[in-house]
Amino acid sequence: MLKSRYRFFLLLLIFNAIFFVVSERVFSSDVLDNEYFINKERVLDSEVKALSLSLSHYIMAGIYDSQNKIPLAISEYEEVLKYNENIAYIYVRLASDFFLKGINEQAEKMTLKATSLEPENVKVKFLTAMIAAAKNDYIKAEMLYKEIIVSEPENLHALSILADLLLVEGKIDEALEIYEKMSGILKNSFVINFNLGVLYTKMEKWDRAEQILEKVLMLDKNHIEANFLLGFIYESKGELDKAVNQYNGIIEKDKFSRDAYYRIYDIFLREKAFKKAEDTLRLFIQLVPSEEEAYVKLFSMYLVNDDYKNAEKILKEALNNNVESADIYSNLGYLALLASDYISAVRYYKKSVEINPEDLGNKFYLSVALNKSGNKKDAICVLEKSVSSGKVIAEIYNYLGFLYVESGENLEEAVYLIKEALKLDPSNIFYMNSLGSAFDKKRDLDTALNYFLIANSANTGDAEILENLVDIYISKKDFWDTKEFWEKAYKLEPDNNALSEKFKNIQEQGSL
């Protein structure tokens, strides 16, 4: 009998040694170590022969696990259970394998069996919680992780997963408490403290976030994300000088840090310190002349300040530095439109569309430039091709309909197109005005009047809409309403000669 037991313990030692060699996966090393295997009391009451027969299956299961051959491992673990179905650890191994294969129902069954054998086992609870979370049963998972933490208050693995779970559930305050607890356990953990700082930033608790981030940077002063986050916190607190200094510190560490330059630029722009904003991006462009976004940002600043000369200059500087993009050309086209240089606008927008044929906005502006340059047919052709391709935006529908109306052709199609534009943008008064013009062209005056009135009710300060109402009321010989809307339009455009002529017609046709 003693000899038999000696052999058993020798087998068990060999068995455990092989297990530790072949089992390298997370569940076996970090979460599900072999403390769950056969407890000594149960083993001593079992047949040594059964253990010997099941040993080879268990060893093979471990080998298959290490090779990620999970179906084969599952098969071997099931063979082990044929010899002894009361081994909690085997159910845990099966549960982990089913879980890794995404077979959560089977995994859950295995954890239930393991729990029935060892109801207070923390590792079994851990796996059960993971499966519950995978099935989106967050309430059950949260409850189990909290039970684990009650029995093991400093279980960082459980604490961190619980914190993440609480964030998924939107329980940010509770997650913060967990992270604060972890920070107390591992005071010098960079990751824990950084995540804590991120959470306080999301909660807009700026002072605490600043305190945490300063601690984080004491642990790793060169960490870029932490430095940026502290700069953002300073910005959010309105401490813009400190924010600029923080971002400049990042640039000292990495002079090519694009985002640091852009953050400084945005701060100066917000403060209307345009020269400083310009100098910041000029410095960056000197370092990285191929950075398109820097040119576009400067262009936008010049445009807002009506500095069209420098706006054009910076875009052409980009082209000189071989920065050719659809945005660069389309912005040049926009400047040409503003300057009524329609030939140049057409050239630039054609280049933009050539570079990026998927940009529907540039196709729209190309058609505008073509129409303004006297090439209405070409403008219509560009828009018709876009509509026939099925790739359309509201502006294209409306403008094509407007051009048909202006040409006096395809009026039914024009009505259809403008209605399609309104489906995409129902509150657009200019599309409503276009639809009124289409019905006016069809001499459906009542319908036209209705759309003009709707457009005017949404924006009573648009002279074009008011003038359209004047025209409709003249056509309907409603002279008093004509006078009312003419006066409103005239206040907005007193130098409009066409309006003055209409006033003479009103005087001739009605008793005003």
Automatic annotation (TrEMBL):
TPR repeats: 190-223, 326-359, 463-496
Keyword annotations of the record: Repeat, TPR repeat
Pfam families found in the cross-reference section: TPR_16 (PF13432), TPR_19 (PF14559), TPR_8 (PF13181)
Domain of life: Bacteria
PANTHER family xrefs: TETRATRICOPEPTIDE REPEAT PROTEIN 6, UDP-N-ACETYLGLUCOSAMINE--PEPTIDE N-ACETYLGLUCOSAMINYLTRANSFERASE SPINDLY-RELATED
Annotated protein name in UniProt: Uncharacterized protein
Annotated organism of origin: Candidatus Omnitrophus magneticus
